[in-house]
Write a structure and sequence with these properties.
370 residues, alpha+beta, 2 domains, ten-stranded antiparallel β-sheet, 23% strand
Length: 370
């Protein structure tokens, strides 16, 4: 084998031999070794107790079971489509194109926050809304929101520990109350969430719920000034007299949504809350004071619904860190963890499609890819 050539000051190549050659390969080997070690560490292979996206998703599966082709959380859902009509009021605080006057197409998804796609709609007391805004400049804004005022914990590790505490006991099929109680006793930051959940009741409709970002983000204006924000979707629809009670049955939410949309579009106002100095941006367990300034950034208009088995939301990963220029992540540690876990869930459910009974890898089956 020829000796490697290296350039010389004269421009003519010279051959590396002896100690120089050994030294060069040693440097290359060291770089490769460091890269491999870093990759293994990030993957969790050299630190078995380190929290990774795979461990988080594995725990969700341990709690709810594995349903091939479905999302590992918020598995039961429905697609919706429509548009966002900007009011122009948020342009002062963010130069994201979505806030310029005009319409932006939206593909969304309502869901029941559980890992079982066959769970009853009344199994949990809150709902979720996920949206993908397709901006005219080719950028996207994706957001996932929930109909609860605060998150129960502040960190990814605490969330994993909560899931672990809630894992069903094989003997009973239900979580061990003592383990759940011990978790919350050691996490006083969950007090606001527990206070809310004690009286929360499952709503009878996706349409009458408000949905909150919970995590903080940062709007960046045309001058580069940063504005910490949270947002929520405030519904125009309300429960009519006698409709507020939760219906019987397990699958009433889809039917209600279809009935309402048959009568006309459904609307929500995107309300953006501006933080005051000192308001926490890295703690989703704390709501900001109610006197903070709100901006009505525009109206979300949903016009149609489709089953998630074949609808346009089926293949969308609603990663909260897919953000357009003018919107950035805050320092909330839950955001990168959500992004990584969503990616892991997406890869698992889409790779499972080819392995489902009666499904050929060369002929994708849309109804199994949720």
């Amino acid at each position: 084998m020829n000796d490697p050539l290296v350039p010389t000051p004269s421009g003519k190549p010279a051959r590396l031999t002896g100690p120089a050659l050994i030294g060069r390969f040693a440097v290359i080997g060291a770089v490769v070794a460091v890269t491999v070690v870093a990759f293994c560490y990030v993957g969790g292979w050299l630190a078995p107790q380190r929290l990774t996206p795979a461990r988080l998703i594995n725990q969700l599966q341990a709690n709810a079971g594995v349903f091939p082709g479905y999302r590992r959380n918020h598995a039961k859902g429905v697609c919706v489509t429509g548009y966002f009509l900007s009011s122009g009021q948020a342009q002062t605080y963010s130069d994201a194109q979505v806030f310029a006057p005009g319409r932006t197409p939206v593909v969304g998804r309502f869901a029941v926050p559980a890992g079982d796609p066959y769970a009853s709609d009344s199994s949990v007391p809150f709902r979720s809304m996920a949206l993908r805004f397709a901006l005219a400049n080719g950028q996207q804004w994706r957001t996932g929101m929930n109909s609860m005022p605060v998150f129960p914990v502040t960190t990814p590790q605490a969330f994993y520990d909560l899931l672990k505490a809630q894992q069903p006991d094989p003997a009973t099929g239900k979580p061990d109350g003592a383990k759940v109680g011990a978790f919350f006793a050691s996490h006083p930051e969950a007090a606001a969430f527990l206070g809310w959940v004690k009286t929360a009741k499952p709503s009878a409709s996706f349409a009458t719920e408000g949905y909150l970002s919970l995590n903080a983000f940062v709007f960046v204006d045309a001058n580069g000034v940063r504005h910490p924000v949270r947002w929520r979707m405030q519904p125009e629809s309300t429960d009519a007299a006698g409709d507020a009670a939760t219906p019987s049955g397990t699958d009433y939410l889809d039917a209600d949504l279809t009935r309402r949309l048959a009568q006309g579009p459904l609307r929500w106002h995107l309300l953006v809350t501006l933080a005051n100095p000192g308001d926490p941006t890295n703690d989703a367990t704390k709501a900001w004071p109610s006197d903070r300034r709100d901006i009505d950034a525009g109206t979300l208009v949903l016009e149609s619904t489709q089953p998630q088995e074949s609808g346009p939301c089926r293949d969308i990963n609603y990663d909260p860190l897919v953000l357009p220029a003018g919107i950035e992540a805050s320092d909330d540690p839950l955001l990168p963890a959500r992004s990584a876990a969503y990616a892991t869930s997406y890869l698992r459910r889409t790779s499972e499609e080819a392995h489902l009974p009666g499904t050929a890898a060369a002929l994708p089956k849309p109804e199994t890819k949720l």
